[in-house]
């Protein structure tokens, strides 16, 4: 029996406010139609239904990635509404994502890459990883800083799961100077100080589900996605 992980990419952490970054007061909304143009990896599909983006795995998927075409500023606040639509859905958000291979553009594994090769690709990138709604994997929400394949700058996890299938939640992920945080329905669950924070980078949303004798594909809905810099 094999398990994979649903991912949607988010930002979180924080507690300390320092004097490093300055805000420009800008805010941008990411419409569902815009998300459908993001670079993707592995097997899945997106569908726009009104003001919602429905994201789901398809046959043979080992998780589905949506990768922003641009890099976002060092400090920002990401907000959106999300709803898990299958019991296996795991939501993962990667932010401040950078690759150090010096090649222009965002480099993806080969379409024939094995799950281990995809895992190695993810582990080699610098990023913050927020994973929520992962009870189907026998786990609870966690947040960590990935420095390289062999080192995590920090790792935090919750004692209990905090989401249910079929229910909308308001997500807030923020990074300001040395502080990172994650809120769900305006309640803070992670608030971390990173003394050597990553600078700006790309944003990745990922979903994945559980496969075994009974295949249950990951499926989730997103809407009201916005990023502010203040």
Tell me about this structure.
This protein is mostly beta strands and 230 residues long. Helix content is 6%, strand content 44%. The chain is built from 2 helices and 15 strands. The chain has helices at residues 32-35, 115-124; strands at residues 26-30, 39-41, 44-49, 52-57, 64-67, 76-84, 90-98, 126-132, 142-148, 151-157, 169-176, 179-184, 187-193, 202-208, 219-229. Strands 1, 3, 4, 6, 11, 12, 13 and 15 form an 8-stranded antiparallel sheet that branches. It has a 7-stranded antiparallel sheet with strand order 2-5-14-7-8-9-10, with no helix packed on it. It is globular, with a radius of gyration of 16 Å. The relative contact order is 0.35. The model is unreliable at 1-24 (pLDDT under 50).
Give the helices and strands, then pairings.
Elements: E1 26-30, H1 32-35, E2 39-41, E3 44-49, E4 52-57, E5 64-67, E6 76-84, E7 90-98, H2 115-124, E8 126-132, E9 142-148, E10 151-157, E11 169-176, E12 179-184, E13 187-193, E14 202-208, E15 219-229
Antiparallel strand pairs: 1-15, 2-5, 3-4, 4-15, 5-14, 6-11, 6-15, 7-8, 7-14, 8-9, 9-10, 11-12, 12-13
Q: What's the shape? A: globular
Amount of beta strand: 35-45%
Task: Tell me how many strands there are.
Answer: 15
Gyration radius, to the nearest Å?
16 Å
């Amino acid at each position: 029996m094999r398990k994979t992980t649903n991912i949607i990419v988010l930002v979180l952490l924080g507690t300390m406010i320092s004097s490093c970054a300055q805000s420009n007061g800008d805010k941008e909304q990411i419409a569902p139609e815009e998300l459908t143009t993001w670079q993707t990896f592995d097997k899945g599909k997106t569908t726009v239904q009104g003001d919602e983006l429905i994201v789901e795995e398809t046959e043979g998927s080992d998780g589905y990635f949506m990768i922003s075409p641009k890099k976002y500023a060092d400090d920002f606040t990401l907000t959106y509404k999300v709803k898990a639509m299958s019991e296996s859905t795991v939501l993962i958000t990667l932010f401040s994502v950078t690759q150090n291979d010096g090649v222009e553009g965002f480099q993806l594994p080969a379409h024939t890459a094995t799950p281990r090769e995809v895992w190695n690709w993810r582990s080699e990138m610098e990023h913050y990883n927020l994973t929520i709604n992962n009870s189907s994997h026998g786990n609870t929400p966690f947040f960590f800083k990935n420095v390289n394949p062999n080192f995590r700058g920090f790792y935090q996890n919750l004692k209990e799961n905090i989401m249910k299938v079929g229910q909308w939640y308001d997500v807030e992920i923020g990074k300001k100077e040395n502080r990172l945080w994650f809120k769900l329905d305006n309640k803070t669950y992670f608030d971390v100080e990173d003394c050597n924070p990553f600078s700006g980078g790309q944003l990745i949303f990922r979903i994945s589900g559980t496969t075994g004798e009974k295949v249950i594909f990951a499926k989730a809905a997103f809407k009201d996605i916005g990023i502010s810099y203040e």
